[in-house]
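Entry 14. Structure prediction run on the chain below.
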Amino acid sequence: MSASHERSTLAPSLSDHARALRGAPVPTGGHPLPDSARTRRPRRPGRRHGEVRAAVTDVLHHLLAAPGTDPEGALVATGIRYRTVLRAAATLEHPDEPAARALGRRLVRTGTTLVGVAGGLGLLSRYGEPEDVPYLRDLGLLAELGSAVVEALTPLDRQAAASISLAHRARGAAQRALVDALFSGRTGDLRDLVVAVPARTSRDVGPEQARRIAEATGLPALLRAHPEDPELLAQVVLLLTRMTSRRDYTTAVLRYEDARELYEAIAARVAEPVGDLDRQALLLSLALDLHGGASYLLDWPPGRREAVLGALLAAVGEPPEESADTDADPRARQRAAWIRRTAPRLHAAPAAQEPDGAPRLRIEVAVADPGDPDVVETRFLVDGRPLVPWAFGRGPGDPPERLLDTGALRAGDEPREVRLAEAYCSEGCCGALHVTVRREGPHVVWGDWSRPGAPRGLPDLPVLRFDAAAYDTEITRAERDRGWSWPARDTARLIAAGLRDRPGLLARWGLRPGWTGTAFGEPDTTVVTYDDLPPADGGTPDTPPRQYLWHLPEDGTPPERRAAAALRRFEEEDPRGYPEPAG
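Output returned:
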């Protein structure tokens, strides 16, 4: 009886299998693999991950030294998972690049198993050339190979890579229709298909999906082909806005090579105030990111970022006045209030300055468009340049309640470690950005940076030495600045301050304060959380501890009175018995 890797040679190559499916509608996740692509893994003693990777690397080096060997059979015989084979091949460094390329092509074009093709894809992700694109594009339509093909295709043909990514992740009929058109060559309908994709919020289209749509459809060229098309322009604005969202593990707008070109195209086409609440909010979102978010870091020629920012703010125009129309629609009212708060602040923000001596620090609080709620983040601009998206890029700055309301950024006599940002998921999952703040004579120093849990490849971070007097002045200004806030958030801040000043309010009921802020999807609702205190002896509680969430919808009462009433109620009643909290 033949071994599993020998039996697989009786089957057609995965490349031939994929080529036969050309023209067929691509299901989400890709076409199913033939049964012959999967090989049984022999039982082997447990090995560490590094040992397994090293074993694959040794096999690849042997195959390059002995070209006559059956490469797929050798890889399958290791009994190692195809994803591990893929990663090991993708990081293989070999002095004979043509030989490595030839081995990758052989595996990609003739391989019949996931393991064999994965080895070829890994090699071509490092050594591939344009002639490999048709083979990669075909294989990318198969299930379980999409991500590997996208990685190999991206440096060779970004548009093809984006199309493959969309094919595997398309959601809804409109995105499926767009994918079908891309793979059938029906590009005459591209404009209508792009406009038809729902993109009103990040739930419709996330940041990475928006980037892939833009890449796959050649959005700048499509916009040039329809220069007087307000509907297409509005969709382009939406997609670029989605790319600036912080609700992802990567900064999509920085991964989109044509982002600057799209910004320029939008700015050139919105020369006058738009006079529409939705478009005002979207353009203001782009301006906010261009001023102090990731879009600042795009490769801007001198003066162009400032010019585009000015054009966007001019198009936003005057903040909308309060009216019966917006009052009738809570979300419209929230967006109009946000524009009234945010647009004047951007107009009044100091321009970025060239470094001159000690770096200049400015701290700002950025609030996202309530039409697509996002976190409230603290931004750190060093000589105008945003620190967090450059130094970390895995998530937003921590909220102002954590950094400014608690005095965490003040420089005292003792060094203090401060977390500036956390990954979109959590610090424990994908890392965070920490810095140690210390005072040294006439300077405040930010140094001893750490990014626990963050991926490799991030830039080295310099020691920042700020003028101490200027630093203290800026921290004081930022702590006192409440122009970004709104009544429900002010109520939350005052309640949190009261609980910090009077820790016994909750402790007397066997509770401790949690986080206090506003509801993510309902910014006009204050949320106060508190937890059961653990047993004083450190033992196991009789019942599992609970967290309570007390929601306080905005009712027009001034924040000071709302907060005072909440603190008074904590003093008088056991908060566990409130009818409002959810446990």
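DSSP finds 28 helices and ten strands in the chain.
Filed with the rest of this week's runs.
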